[in-house]
Amino acid sequence: MDIEREILETDILIVGAGPAGLAVAHKLMQLVEADGDMEVPEILVMEKGSHVGAHALSGAVMDPKGLKELIPDFVEKEAPLEAEVKSDAMYYLSESGSMKFPFTPPSINNHGNYIVSLNKLSAWLGEQVEATGLDIFAGLAGYDLIIENGRVEGVQTVDMGLNKEGEPRSNFEPGSIVKAKLTILCEGVHGSLTRHAYERIPELLADALPQSYLTGVKEVWKVPEGRIKAGDVIHTIGWPQPSHEYGGGWVYGMSDTMVSIGYAVGLNSPDPTNDPHMKFQRYKCHPLMREILKGGEMLHYGAKTIPDAGYYSMPKLYHQGLLLCGDSAGMLNPAKLKGIHLAIKSGIMAAETAFDCLKADDFSADRLKAYADRFDTSWAKDELYKYRNFHQGFDGGLLPGLFHAGIQMVTGGRGLFDRRRHERDHKYMMTIEQYQKRFGKKPEKHTVKLDNEFTHDKLTDVYKSGTMHEEEQPSHLVIADYDICNNRCTEEYGNPCQHFCPAHVYEMVDDDERPGKIKLQLTPSNCVHCKTCDIADPYQVIRWVTPQGGEGPNYENC
Ligand code: SF4
């Protein structure tokens, strides 16, 4: 289809209005204003959610270091901080019991941190950016990264108004070409344009180890008074995660009656029935959690992946016309499972670099390298470097992982090995046969009684995420080969997509044309944009592409 596209030109294009992207915009406007001489540059901030914060999801306990640097008077400016952390506790769980650690490991000591709702914090940051005179274009999704002669030139936005077959409907609006002197990708975890960049500019990942991910599933509950206090932080390891798999849970007191509860599961699991949503439902049935949740009401749901491999899996941070920030660059502390402060700090450093480039009218890789240099001398690098081997220490399971974490603590992060190689997550998934050989039994589907009191099915949770997609559009989950899904995967892995997706998008149904066989059926409108399928599919035939702008989850209080 030959389509004439509108071409928009801007100086700086920021993709993603999360903490990283908003920090870039805010800091850049501060620098321009402080300079006095410089003409205000054209800065375009685009966000695929329907509004700023709609797609922002996190645990979330925030280390305020980054925000303090960006907006020192954030408390006076009434940043939406749910509670200052007052108490920290760490538990090891068995199926029916719990053992409280006598102390909280320093890596997860949250003294001085705040419990926040990332979608509220992002909305507030968006207001601070708009107060500088910048507009944020929400509901505008990037479809493709434009690279010409090896230089990133901007982004093509998503076409609106196509039917399921990809043909224009009466309301068709072609995506535009947004050309920029500098494109800054702040898309969050496993963004589709960032993936384009990695695929088409191989040098970005040439020196990086593969990224590893967790899928985090969370709910926000209203509970009766007396169950938890505002500022209480509980972390757990152990049940329901088997000891050879990576993951853990949390409960945060957002107020005396509001609780954030969640569970994160490593996607490098050998189990083809690995089901983060179901593990989370089981987690809520533990006596410790029941005591907190009983008589309460689940209000909100969300799920997203977390880039957890740390420092050695970070990409090269710049290329001609391009910078990478925050989760897009894998900037997350794996020991603390925290990235908001690092995202903001990376945004600040990207803005300082962009400002210098604007002054010199030079956006070459040589000048953009200053961003990587800034990172190398920053507290963000120091923090990430200290935990550079944390995730890899758990490759042998929970107990070796705790042992390695202890050794790393006294060796400045080095531990017994440094920069141990690992594979991409999907390579660890075993076929049914391999699993049976290794564990002496077939992988078993994870189940729990869904009682609609403590536990909920995926569809109820999707409803609580506010997710919305127009049905009449091309599927944003592109399956390269249905034959693999309907035949080979059924036999070899038992179709793991129906388990790992936390939103019931993938279903295996009877195939009327092949009696006795099953086939894959998709419901893309349920998708909460977590990206688990794109990462965990063992054949890598699933590709998540951006749907129409303004669609997807509509997170509240998450
Ligand atoms: Fe996540 Fe993929 Fe399911 Fe969407 S379809 S919710 S991205 S696993």
Commentary on this structure:
The chain has 558 residues and is an alpha+beta fold. Helices cover 28% and strands 24% of the residues. Among the domains are: 7-61 and 123-208 and 315-386, 3-Layer(bba) Sandwich (FAD/NAD(P)-binding domain); 391-419, no CATH class. Strands 1, 2, 8, 9, 10, 13, 19 and 20 form an 8-stranded mixed β-sheet that branches. Helix 1 (19-35) runs parallel beside helix 3 (118-131), helix 1 runs parallel beside helix 7 and helix 7 packs antiparallel against helix 8. The radius of gyration is 23 Å and the shape is globular.
Q: What's a quick, concise take on this entry?
A:
With 558 residues, this protein is α+β, with helices and mostly antiparallel strands. The protein has helices at 19-35, 65-70, 118-131, 192-200, 276-284, 287-293, 340-360, 365-376, 379-386, 390-393, 398-410, 432-439, 458-464, 482-492, 497-500, 532-536, and strands at 7-15, 43-47, 61-62, 81-84, 87-93, 98-100, 114-116, 136-138, 142-148, 151-157, 160-162, 168-173, 177-185, 213-222, 232-238, 247-253, 258-266, 297-307, 318-319, 322-324, 477-479, 506-510, 518-522, 542-544.
- Which radius of gyration do the C-alpha atoms yield? 23 Å
Name the ligand types.
iron/sulfur cluster
CATH homolog superfamily of one domain: FAD/NAD(P)-binding domain
Instruction: Note the overall shape.
Output: globular
| Helix/sheet category | alpha+beta
Mean pLDDT across all amino acids: 96
